């Protein structure tokens, strides 16, 4: 059974007089991997906290299993939170507990399972994230990457239908981030849960998700199939994906129109966007991601509503016969006529691997 659909309508959040974002509307398709991008300070983490009921929006709705989290009572909200698993930026592990007890904690708190049952579940999840054999280590004795994986194992123990990742690449070098990205895809293949990732990492945004959204200027500028944002010629997208200074995004807030125009004139001859990289596939030997076939049908149904560049990229990714080019990637042929992404074939992570502006609205 795939992860649950999450429908967000007209969501607005403020702290006092400071508006964070307004009228956020999107649908997280069941079982698919979605990424939320945006400049620092645009409220991406606030959005995650609103999804699980830790923050209460002033307006709008968040509907899961026909229940609105914004308006339900505390008892119902408590039950709905069990549908979520969350990987926090720092792993959020208890420093005085070993990894086994950290990962077992949700099971002991929220279930009546026996210690024997708990052990079976904990060992299964530790094996899934490549931490088998590290049960007795304390969080202070392991690397940042291992802490992330331990936090991910803990997020998985209740078999959540929705898994939220709050900047999983924070504090990791590019190599560990690449391993973690592959692990995320592998876990999606095994669980078929609905994933939402908040990140600043451009490689993650280019290679991991089925869908991408972008928060900008206190609203959700776009959410839809990954190809829409990755082929957009919008100046905000070009600046963000190229990681350059010139453009509408400033250091602490958006630049005024005149300044942005002067800077864009300086980079007029630069490429608007980096080349599209192929999406990561599950590691050989694991189940195929069920979300791939569901997404293919969903995207084909909306294809005529998308920008021409996105349509072309989607058709190429599906191949001539309409099937995604997974087989081509597996034997080394990259779609879009570009060199193969070197992170695509990374093996599953093991303990030894880690030594320590307005975009088109698509819904």
UniProtKB/TrEMBL annotation:
Residues 308-363 are annotated as: Disordered. This is Ribonucleotide ABC transporter, ATP-binding protein. Keywords: ATP-binding, Nucleotide-binding, Transport. Residues 6-242 form the ABC transporter domain. Pfam families: ABC_tran. It comes from Pseudonocardia halophobica. Gene3D superfamilies: P-loop containing nucleotide triphosphate hydrolases (3.40.50.300). It comes from the Bacteria. One of its GO terms (molecular function) is ATP hydrolysis activity. The keyword Secreted does not apply. The lineage of its organism: Bacteria, Bacillati, Actinomycetota, Actinomycetes, Pseudonocardiales.
